[in-house]
Amino acid sequence: MPLRAVTGHLLIRQLGHWLPDALHRSRRATLVQAYGDDPDGTPEAALRACGEAAHLLRGRQLTVVVVADHAVDVVARLDAPSPGMAVHGVPGGPDRVPVALKAAAAAGAPVLTYLDAPTGPAPGPATLAAVAGGRPGELLMVLGPAASAGYDHRAALDAAGFPLVTAVELVPPDGDGRWLVVYATRLGRALDAFKEALWAVDGAGGVRYRDPDDPDAAPVDVTPGPDLAPLRRALVAHLDRVRRASVTDLRRFTATATIYRSGDTDRVLADLLTAGAVGREPRDGRLAGDVVISTSA
Q1: Quick one: DSSP state of residue 275?
Q2: Are residues 275 and 179 in the same domain?
Q3: Are both 117 and 37 inside the same structural domain?
Q4: In terms of pLDDT, which residue wins out, 238 or 55?
Q5: Are the C-beta atoms of 162 and 200 separated by less than 8 Å?
Q6: pTM of the model as a whole
Q7: Same domain for 201 and 244?
Q8: Residue 283, burial from CB neighbour count under 10 angstroms (0-12, 13-18, 19+)
Q9: What is the mean pLDDT of residues 44-68?
Q10: Record's superkingdom (predicted)?
Q11: 111: Cβ contacts below 8 Å, ≥ 6 apart
Q12: Which domain holds residue 130?
């Protein structure tokens, strides 16, 4: 399934950023993968990605927990873990994540949770709170149409303690059965890494992205150089509301409130400044983070 290929790619890419950072911060870290239906090879791919970073595990401990209906069978199919890595299976669905984290003694250390629920309900407050309890905690969550309908993921994650949240809708080639991918963290560089991974999906199989926060948004192609016209409209609309904002604030807006990367902000602002659509203070110099952008030239 094209959507599963994209979500699997995002997990592997985020692991590539998270694991070195987590093991630099702490001597132990926990990866939790929770599935609401058939994981379809994703746990194996994630474990291989962790094994490729075995050199990082010297003197460290990585605990990998797989939560699934047939978790014991899933874990039995996995390759033998590298030294310094322990793999456990917990029967059940995403609602068992708090139990899994407690059993893994994950408190007080970095935690990355991959919550895959293309079918079934959205996670409850207890699940999100448990994920946010990592130091730090990060969440990559996949929700199907039934789970995302009427679900305010931003409010739920804010209540759980995640200050940085972004989301993108995956649109399959036939347009039906869209999935919502949500990423939540406390670390700006982790958010930037996720956004870079989002636009670096190799061979999306006809899957396109759509901004779930914009009811008028059209799906866009997945490419390292995406069409920035939607971001231009979003930034102009945001500036119309706030009147003035620093470049740093606008980059943060892009990273959290749109599907684009923070670095795309500078390219759009350069075009807007050239066109005279916005002004800046100071008027000259490079576009540093403390430059203030306003709607009046």
Answers
A1: T
A2: no
A3: yes
A4: 238
A5: no
A6: 0.94
A7: no
A8: exposed
A9: 91
A10: Bacteria
A11: 29, 30, 31, 32, 101, 131, 133, 134, 135, 136, 137, 138
A12: 2-221
Please tell me the predicted confidence (pLDDT) of residue 72: 83
Is residue 107 within 8 A of residue 150, CB to CB? The reply is: no
> 45, 16 in Cβ contact below 8 A?
no
Q: Interhelix angle for 188-198 vs 247-257, to 10°?
A: 60
Distance CA 91, CA 69 (A): 5
What is the average pLDDT value for the chain, to the nearest integer?
93
Q: How far apart are CA 83 and CA 108, in angstroms?
A: 22
274 and 177 together in one domain = no
String of b and e for 132-145 (b: at least 16 CB within 10 Å)?
A: bbbebbbbbbbbbe
| Chain centre to alpha carbon of residue 270 | 27
The residue-averaged pLDDT of 264-292 equals 96
| pLDDT for the residue numbered 79 | 79
Residues 108 and 241 in one domain: no
193 SS3 class = helix
- Whether residue 43 has a cis bond before it, omega within 30° of 0: no
| Of the residues 204, 221, 238, the one at which a domain ends | 221
Position 292 pLDDT exceeds 60: yes
Q: So what's the pLDDT on residue 202?
A: 76
User: Residue 171, Cβ neighbours under 10 Å: how many?
Assistant: 22
Same domain, residue pair 21 and 130: yes
Task: Give how many domains the chain has, as a whole number.
Answer: 2
Is there a single domain that holds both residue 205 and residue 161?
A: yes
- Residue 187 sits in a domain of what CATH number? 3.40.50
- Check: CB of residue 200 under 8 Å from CB of residue 10: no
